Amino acid sequence: MRLVISVVQDQDVNRLLSALMEHGYSATKLASTGGFLKQGNTTLLVGVEDNQVSEVTEIIKETCHSRKQLIAPMAPIGRTINSYTPNPVEVTVGGAAIFVLNVEDFSKV
Ligand code: 2BA
To answer: What is the model's pLDDT at position 47?
Structure first.
């Protein structure tokens, strides 16, 4: 069994959850915050059989879009003076960051 952990943008999460449910997958939605932008995003946990990983990954790819985001000048993007940004910086966020972990054991009690 595998655990697919995906960090997705909030704008994509409802469509992604609907698509996962339509295909019969269970998912857990966690509110999360990106370390770089310090903005909200969503982390989904999906426990699947090994042979289902590619389908879940494909659903995530189809549903989650990349978006460009500007970090305003002067905004602190870290805790040190080295992360000070004098000019606007454009970053491309998403589609999704996907991690696939081996699951040692899974049970429902
Ligand atoms: P954030 O950490 O807020 O990052 C948002 C976007 O900022 C990233 O988009 C990337 O384009 C840019 N970025 C992140 N760190 C950077 C850095 N040190 N220097 C320059 N630009 C940087 P994505 O790569 O699509 O990531 C979207 C969100 O997914 C991230 O939000 C974070 O919450 C999560 N994520 C991405 N990679 C991760 C990883 N290796 N481990 C854990 N979470 C990750």
So the answer is: 98
The tokens describing 52, both together, are: 């289902």
Does 30 contact ligand 1 (Cβ within 6 A)? Answer: no
Whether the CB of 97 sits within 6 Å of ligand 1: yes
Atom 41 of ligand 1 has which residue's CA nearest to it?
97
Angle between helices 53-63 and 10-22 (to 10 degrees): 140
Q: Using one digit for the tens of pLDDT, what is the confidence trace for 19-62?
A: 999 999 999 999 999 999 999 999 999 999 999 999 999 999 99
CA angle 80, 71, 62 (to 5 degrees): 120
Residues contacting residue 61 through CB under 8 Å, at least 6 positions apart: 95, 96
Q: Which atom of ligand 1 is found nearest the CA of 91?
A: 11
